[in-house]
Design a protein that fits this description.
The structure is a homodimer. By secondary structure, chain A is α/β, with parallel strands linked by helices. In chain A, strands 1, 2, 3, 4, 5 and 6 form a six-stranded parallel sheet that branches. In chain A, helix 6 packs parallel to helix 7 and helix 10 packs across helix 11. The radius of gyration of chain A is 18 Å and the shape is globular. The mean pLDDT of chain A is 96. At the A-B interface, helix 5 of A face helix 5 of B. Chains A, B: It comes from Rhodophyticola porphyridii. Chains A, B: This is Membrane dipeptidase. Chains A, B: GO terms for molecular function: metallodipeptidase activity.
Chain lengths: 326, 326
Amino acid sequence: MICIDALQYANWSEKVFRQMRDGGLDCVHVTIAYHETFRETVLRIEEWNRRFEAFPDLIRLAYTTADIRAAKAEGRTAILYGAQNPSPIEDDIGLVEILHRLGLRIMQLSYNNQSLLATGAYEAQDPGLTRMGREVVAEMNRVGMAVDMSHSAERSTLEAIERSTRPIAITHANPHAWHPALRNKSDTVLRALTSSGGMLGFSLYPHHLKDGSGCSLESFCRMIADTADRYGAAHLGIGSDLCQDQPDSVVEWMRTGRWSKRIDFGEGSAEAPGFPPQPAFFRDNRDFPRLAEGLAAVGFDKSEIAGIMGGNWLAYFDRVFDGTDG
Amino acid sequence: MICIDALQYANWSEKVFRQMRDGGLDCVHVTIAYHETFRETVLRIEEWNRRFEAFPDLIRLAYTTADIRAAKAEGRTAILYGAQNPSPIEDDIGLVEILHRLGLRIMQLSYNNQSLLATGAYEAQDPGLTRMGREVVAEMNRVGMAVDMSHSAERSTLEAIERSTRPIAITHANPHAWHPALRNKSDTVLRALTSSGGMLGFSLYPHHLKDGSGCSLESFCRMIADTADRYGAAHLGIGSDLCQDQPDSVVEWMRTGRWSKRIDFGEGSAEAPGFPPQPAFFRDNRDFPRLAEGLAAVGFDKSEIAGIMGGNWLAYFDRVFDGTDG
């Protein structure tokens, strides 16, 4: 069984990497940009280069799915770069191929707000993909970069699914029917996503969970079972959205970036502006095996569990990453 | 009479500055950014600094309307900086005050395409001002930077008029009823604009003119007279959109920027991709006096002509530029 987490943004450290090994994580999709410009994203990549140099026994960068399989064979965790916003390409479609060459394999078209490409889930209006957005989706398809619509609004998401010639991903969100968070996804979106070969990664971020930090493993896994009944287990995976050891200033950066002089509390509030506590059954990377146990307890068979814990993400990455990189 | 042109983007040279003097231009709003980032915009400002140093007898930078009046008294042309796109502030509201300090006094919220703030006239859908757009309009109001919606779509323009606490401008466009170019403005927009104290600058760019390059002075001035009848002469001025001595590569940059790998021909076409020839009555800056003559010929009185040729823009700038710059 291969174990893949399709979204994390920890305060990266040897401790976190060791916990990944303890939890049996073969691959983690890590966020390298929330609002970072191209140059700032390159700085984040430089920081990762120093980590790969410092901890060669624990982690390696994945450019391909072969690298993910090699990491597993070597007992290391493959790190897959992603951006939660198209800010790294700024206004420049040519940066898609440049960033792909540097390892970026997943990019969201918008993060909560309107971007140059698409609309975020927090905007009141969603006009769908922009003129630049349609061009960039075609370019991402060409080079083999996955389109992620986790933080995007509904119409933009449906248009990305329709426009993209490769299946898209929602790396970290849950069904809106289970917990009506603004960021969780409607039946319309989930049906279009999965029927086109796309993937949904279930989030463990408390604001996306029914009962928040008090959510139980059983409730979470029953939700996964219901989702599998509706859309098929082969389209499901984990995207924990684990933001471990981060100070509250990081969630403020995620939410407010540089776009407002006032603090925007997003899914939080002025009374609870920081990261909420993790649910008891999923404190950090060491708890991945508990998710597999929880899936077994609600009736998934071994093959389905292997798929949801990582096999489905690997099969998706195989289909999406084989583009043309100059 | 003060003479102000509210939009030019020439291939700046001593020749052009001498023609401004010959045409009696006291102030020109010059574009310093189409798709430029902050750093690239600063380069454009550096280029202007070298021009001010090279031609101190011909031009001076205007930070205030007092500087415009001083330029007239000194026999020089005041240069007023504007951006046709919010690209210079990138994703950073803090850059509004920084750029204001460097002299930026007018900024469009979008240029043909969707921006982070508002929608451009070439997008199929227009959701209005974005979350960041509403914050930035308030910041522009605070520091005293004019909101320009020349290239923006209808709903975004109406929301900017409603949201802005200072009157806004459409520096270069004509009424859609006279010539139905995509960029020309509807009666709804012109009524909302002028009834809120905003200004319209009439464009002499052939794609915005009835009969294009063949437009006559009489037709242009009769259109101004009709517009004055509808909305009041006090809200009208000139924004010639003169792009003198520019190679075709510049119009390609304006239209395509970095957002598409394919060329977008905008108001042109594959057969006619470059700048169209100017109408015979307005070849360059030396022809401004002919506009005043044309206005007299269609019946405007001296005071109205003085207003349209520049007085109305100066009065507008007096109302808009008196913000709080830290």
